[in-house]
Structures are given as structure tokens and as C-alpha cells.
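The instructor's notes for this session suggest beginning with a concrete chain rather than abstract definitions. Hand out the sequence below and ask the class to guess, before any prediction is shown, which regions might be ordered.
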Amino acid sequence: MGRTSEHRLAMRRNMVASLFEHETISTTMEKAKEVKPFAEKLITLAKKGTLAARRQAISLLGNRDIIAYEGGERVRKGTVVGKLFSELGPRYLDRPGGYTRIVRLSMRRLGDNGKLVLFQLIGAEEKVEKRVRAAVQEEAENQAPEAAGETVEAQAADAGQAKTASASEDAGEQKQ
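After discussion, reveal the predicted structure:
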């Protein structure tokens, strides 16, 4: 990557800390491929949840603060290792691996024309999709025509009558 070993190590630590803080970052393909095994290893440590694993994560990653700006002032929201062990580790307990993904973007970076990608943590959006699917399936089961004792043809006829009734009302309003 054209960097000294110290620079590569610092870049890897900073990118993984940003990934854990924001859960998605934009970077180049080469950097994302370099950082992915390190991020996966840290999440595996967080799944253990022990004090020894926490200390090992701090030694590998550092423990920088998560800062947010509210009302123009800096507010400390916690630490990266704290978020890793309290939120991200429990999220992936039932997942055997593959905690990150690399999504290619069509854009290229200005200056050196490097390929840009999104480097993301998997999991947050999957839970939302499962909830939506379950809600849609439950709604379909509740409104099933067989459960109400009606046939599909009867529902279609009711819908057709409603359309003609609304169309005739609209025509009456336009005449006035």
C-alpha cells in the first residue's frame, strides 16, 4: 500500500474505530480489503465478552472516545471498545462469521481516480427487513379471503362496485 508498517497499523486502527463508531464508512477497495480481517477479529473478540477479550481489544485497537455535537457543544457518548462490547458483540452472537461487507460504488475519488466502496457492518438492516416481512405476512394471513368466508371473485366484485360508485359520484360533482 506504499506505507510504512507504523502508518499501515495506525490507518487500520483508525478505520476500524470509525467503522465501529459509524457502522459504515467510505474508502477505497484496497484499504477495505486490508481492514476487513482486523475488524472481523475484533468482533469475534467482542462476542466472547470476557475481561481478557476486552483488554486484548483495547491493546489492538485503542479506546478512543465517541464524540457527538449537540447544540454546538461536544458531548462524549462513550468509547469505541464500549460500543463494540455492548452493542456489536451481542448483535452477532448467533452469526458464525462474515460481520462486514464491501459494497462497490460507481463513483471514483477525485485526484487519483481510486475505486470507492462502502465498508459496512452487517446486521442492523437485516433485523428491520425481518420485522417488515413478518408484519406483511401477518397482515396477509389476517386478511385472507378464505378466513373471512369470502371468495376472491366476491372481493373483486365488491371492488368493481366501489369503483363505479366513486366514478358516478365524481361525474355528479363535475356537472355541478
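Then share the key points. The longest helix spans residues 152-175. The first strand starts at residue 24 and ends at 28.
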